[in-house]
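ARCHIVE CARD
CATEGORY: sequence design from structure
SOURCE FIELD: tokenized fold
FIELD CONTENT:
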């Protein structure tokens, strides 16, 4: 066993000497050419340097070699065990608390480690460049670079192509379109709702229009001159020639009649223009006394309805039927005779020429129609005084004298035609206006179905020169027209007329200048 240890030490020393020679050759101390280096690798002997030129390690090695030569007992030694295996068991067997003395083998291993450390070539350390420069060059060792200072891994080379750009732009384009489409969809929904509402309104208006036009087809629409043939003679009511007590009255003095006719001629022939306004619609309501449909009759009632859009008023002007005037183409006579002579056309010409006011349209209804209209609205409520009730006993048998009564069509017609009670024809026209206003009032309170029945009853009884379009426009604005202020007047007004008998007829002589001024002032808002 001692021989083996000595052999191990000798091998260690030989190996150390070999490495020492290699180190010295690399440093340029002993070997001067390649041949000496190869001899060193083969283990040949080399000339030892002088002692004074040895390093401390070399000196120690030489002392160790000399010591070992003195203790060598056998020329051969056992194969050495690895130093690590010799040292490891020793270290494992040694107690943790006590430190064993270093053996000669351990010392040799320590010396061998020192020799190996010196025999390894020394790498020249270059001065470290500043961090900025190293980053610029993209160099630097991993040892002197901190983990967080190391550059991040670069992504793989992009395979992006122009086709990708086109696809990206395509996606962006269509994506924007989709977004715009969403916004447009919202707008489209709102627009669609508005269009649907507008469509419903239009359909409702169209339905109402069709309904009204269907109703208007029942109206007798005629030209103003449809029945303007001039009769050779007319039937005169005998009551126009006698007093209420049946006695006849002689004509007024010729001087009175001549003076009245002179005023009429002066008024008709004057250069005063016929007045009109685009803001005023004048509709003449004509109630005739025809008892049958084949008899023209006379204009027993004449009410000029003026709708003034500027003053927001509806003016109802009752024109007395007994006014003594000039009938164009006929001569001097009562106003109501003009209708009997030439129909609505001649009546309108007579009013326009004598009162200097334009008549835009007319609506005519006879007494038979008047009864049916009142029955269609359910009758009218009227206050009847004692004198009026005396003339109505035969149509209102179970009466209680003076008071409020609900009248049907026949009773209301008799009430409106009372002539010889009170102020004769003046109160008669007033009663007619009262009945007409009551009809309008009752019509406003009717239900849709009742109003439909009223139209079915009333419209076929009307004759007018208004077109269907004009009637439709009037109906469409009727809601606003019904909110207008209602004003009444009568021509002639109090203090502007006198009674005159001409050709056995009771007539009214009027002051045309004052009457025209007052009449136009109220209608046009002067």
């Amino acid at each position: 066993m001692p021989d083996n240890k000595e052999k191990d030490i000798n091998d260690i020393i030989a190996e150390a000497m070999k490495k020492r020679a290699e180190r010295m050759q690399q440093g340029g101390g002993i070997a001067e050419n390649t041949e000496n280096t190869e001899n060193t690798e083969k283990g040949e002997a080399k000339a030892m340097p002088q002692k004074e030129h040895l390093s401390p390690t070399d000196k120690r090695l030489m002392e160790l070699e000399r010591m070992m030569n003195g203790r060598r007992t056998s020329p051969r030694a056992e194969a050495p065990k690895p130093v690590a295996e010799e040292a490891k068991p020793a270290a494992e067997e040694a107690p943790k608390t006590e430190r064993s003395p270093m053996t000669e083998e351990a010392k040799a291993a320590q010396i061998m480690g020192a020799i190996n450390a010196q025999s390894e070539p020394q790498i020249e350390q270059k001065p470290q460049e500043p961090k900025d420069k190293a980053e610029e060059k993209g160099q630097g060792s991993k040892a002197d670079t901190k983990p967080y200072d190391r550059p991040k891994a670069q992504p793989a080379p992009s395979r992006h192509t122009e086709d990708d750009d086109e696809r990206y732009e395509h996606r962006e384009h269509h994506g924007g379109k989709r977004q715009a489409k969403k916004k447009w969809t919202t707008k489209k929904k709102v627009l669609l709702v508005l269009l649907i509402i507008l469509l419903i309104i239009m359909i409702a208006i169209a339905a109402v229009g069709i309904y009204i036009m269907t109703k208007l087809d029942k109206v007798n629409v005629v030209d103003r001159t449809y029945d303007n043939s001039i009769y050779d003679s007319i039937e005169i009511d005998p009551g126009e020639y006698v007093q209420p007590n049946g006695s006849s009255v002689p004509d007024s003095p010729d001087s009175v009649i001549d003076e009245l006719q002179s005023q009429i001629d002066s008024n008709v022939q004057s250069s005063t223009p016929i007045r009109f306004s685009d803001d005023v619609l004048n509709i003449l309501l004509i109630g005739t006394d025809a008892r049958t449909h084949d008899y023209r009759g006379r204009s027993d009632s004449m009410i000029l309805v003026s709708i003034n859009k500027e003053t927001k008023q509806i003016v109802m002007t009752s024109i007395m039927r007994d006014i003594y005037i000039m009938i164009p183409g006929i001569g001097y006579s009562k106003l109501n005779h003009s209708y009997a002579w030439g129909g609505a056309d001649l009546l309108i010409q007579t009013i326009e020429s004598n009162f200097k006011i334009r008549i835009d349209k007319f609506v005519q209804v006879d007494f038979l129609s008047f009864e049916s209209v009142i029955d269609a609205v359910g009758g009218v409520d009227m206050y009847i005084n004692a004198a009026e009730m005396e003339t109505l006993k035969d149509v209102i048998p179970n009466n209680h004298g003076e008071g409020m009564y609900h009248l049907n069509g026949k009773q209301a017609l008799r009430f409106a035609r009372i002539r010889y009670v009170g102020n004769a024809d003046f109160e008669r026209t007033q009663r007619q206006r009262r009945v007409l206003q009551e009809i309008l009032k009752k019509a406003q309170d009717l239900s849709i179905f009742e109003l439909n029945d009223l139209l079915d009853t009333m419209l076929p009884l009307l004759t007018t020169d208004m077109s269907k379009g004009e009637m439709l426009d009037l109906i469409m604005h009727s809601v606003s027209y019904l909110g207008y202020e209602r004003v009444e007047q009568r021509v002639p007004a109090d203090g502007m007329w006198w009674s005159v008998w001409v050709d056995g007829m009771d007539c009214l002589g009027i002051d045309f200048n004052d009457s025209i001024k007052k009449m136009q002032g109220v209608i046009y808002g002067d």
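CARD ANNOTATION: Residues 29-52, 72-98, 133-148 have pLDDT under 50 and may be disordered. The chain is about 50% helix and 15% strand.
SHELF: design records, drawer C
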